[in-house]
Predict the structure.
Amino acid sequence: MTRDFEQFPDDENGNVLWQMAEDGDDLTEAHEIEFSIAFQTQEQAEKCALYLLKEEQKISLFEDEEADTLEWVITIYVYMEPEYSDIIDIEEWFTKIAEQHGGEYDGWGCMAYVYDDEDFEEEIQS
């Protein structure tokens, strides 16, 4: 399969989507994509979490004790087809929300269903 650089641009998001396609993942099917925002304080994270809930987003909030510094992470679950331009748009929106609440947008990931001799799942993240 030859890479279409209009569909899969040569950047981190395009590379992840291309790898998913190369692995046999059907990108025309909706996936639950997980976008993350990280915060240094619980208070900042909770304020952002409330904002996201008011925006009708499905989220989880947890304290990441394994990070180098104490960190609170919000994961936003968006059910969508993993299409490059849509991911870019959502990343821009979550980046603005993160900045407004003192956090930092921290990327996305999703479960990719890869079929080989045996069925198994592999998690791919950008």
